[in-house]
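[Meeting: bench + compute handoff]

Bench side (C.D.) handed over the final construct sequence. Compute side (W.E.) agreed to return the predicted structure before the next meeting so the bench team could plan truncations. Sequence as handed over:
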Amino acid sequence: MSTRQTNGPAVRALREALGIQHARFAVDCLISPGYLTNIEKSRKQPSPEVARRLAHRLGVELDAITYPVTSEHAA
């Protein structure tokens, strides 16, 4: 079985390329700035709903910030 994990550095790179400030992005995505930091540093994996909000705010498809992982490799 396959699931998807968020590529935190990709989220950060896109956010910065779009000129979106860290705290503003977190508020827009309904998460705390600390949680966003953990996502961007790949320390935490967001729920599928939060990942969808991140992608939506960045204006990209979910596949642009996630990658497939087989269940035996999922965190």
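W.E. noted at the follow-up: The longest strand covers residues 2-6. C.D. will use this when planning the next construct.
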